């Protein structure tokens, strides 16, 4: 009789986790496993199994799962509990429209206040993206680049909403880059965004951001059309 593969076996926990770090460690570990595909869409996430895996009580596990649900990485399904969310939702295009509005506003607030150090940090992320091959790390670097341009926006709630959108995008970034060969185009967009930000040209920055996000919209539209053609 074949042994059913357990996706949680792909997660390695090294040593006991201090109680005060348990929630954040579990959240980060599961997020990485979802983003890099070790926990595929539809995988059921059992609190009891996770508590045993991490050697903790159910409380920090429950808190970590709530955070991941808020980030759109998990869904609570009747009779199944928490499961890994689909790669693309029906409202993903609406999410990109919302991102355009939120991130454009962040650029308006942040770009005039960015320092030389902020620009250097953003440029460092571009340089790191040039050589990074790990798609999980690429997603993180991409998010950090954008956040470096938005970081001086004084509206913290706005920045939190933007971060949630960027985290949601990380799962789809592998498809954007690998299947549609968008790596070079995305880097060209990043360089243009940084160039306009350095010049304090906010409107040009926003126009470049719209072009950048439109590549994501096209990739999602293409993905959904492929899924539709494969359905019986």
TrEMBL record:
UniProt entry tagged with the keyword Transcription regulation: yes
One Pfam family in the UniProt entry: FCD
Record-level Gene Ontology MF annotations: DNA binding; DNA-binding transcription factor activity
Keywords: DNA-binding, Transcription, Transcription regulation
Record-annotated HTH gntR-type domain positions: 20-87
Record flagged with keyword Transcription regulation: yes
Protein name: GntR family transcriptional regulator
Organism encoding this protein: Pseudomonas fragi
Protein encoded by which gene: mcbR
């Amino acid at each position: 009789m074949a042994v059913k593969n357990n996706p949680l076996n792909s997660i390695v926990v090294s040593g006991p986790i201090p109680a005060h770090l348990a929630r954040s460690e579990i959240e980060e570990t599961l997020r990485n496993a979802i983003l890099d595909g070790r926990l595929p869409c539809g995988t059921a996430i059992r609190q009891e199994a996770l508590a045993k895996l991490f050697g903790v009580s159910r409380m920090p596990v429950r808190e970590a799962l709530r955070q991941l649900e808020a980030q759109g990485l998990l869904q609570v399904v009747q009779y199944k509990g928490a499961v890994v969310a689909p790669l693309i939702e029906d409202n993903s295009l609406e999410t990109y429209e919302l991102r355009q509005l939120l991130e454009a506003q962040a650029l308006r607030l942040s770009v005039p206040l960015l320092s030389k150090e902020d620009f250097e940090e953003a440029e460092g992320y571009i340089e790191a993206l040039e050589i990074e091959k790990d798609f999980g790390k690429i997603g993180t670097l991409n998010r950090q680049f954008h956040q470096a341009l938005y970081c001086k926006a004084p509206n913290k709630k706005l920045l939190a909403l933007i971060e949630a959108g960027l985290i949601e995008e990380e799962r789809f970034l592998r498809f954007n880059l690998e299947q549609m060969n968008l790596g070079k185009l995305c880097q060209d967009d990043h360089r243009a965004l940084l160039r306009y930000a350095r010049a304090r040209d906010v409107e040009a920055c926003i126009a470049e951001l719209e072009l950048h996000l439109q590549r994501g919209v096209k990739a999602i539209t293409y993905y959904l059309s492929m899924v539709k053609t494969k359905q019986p």
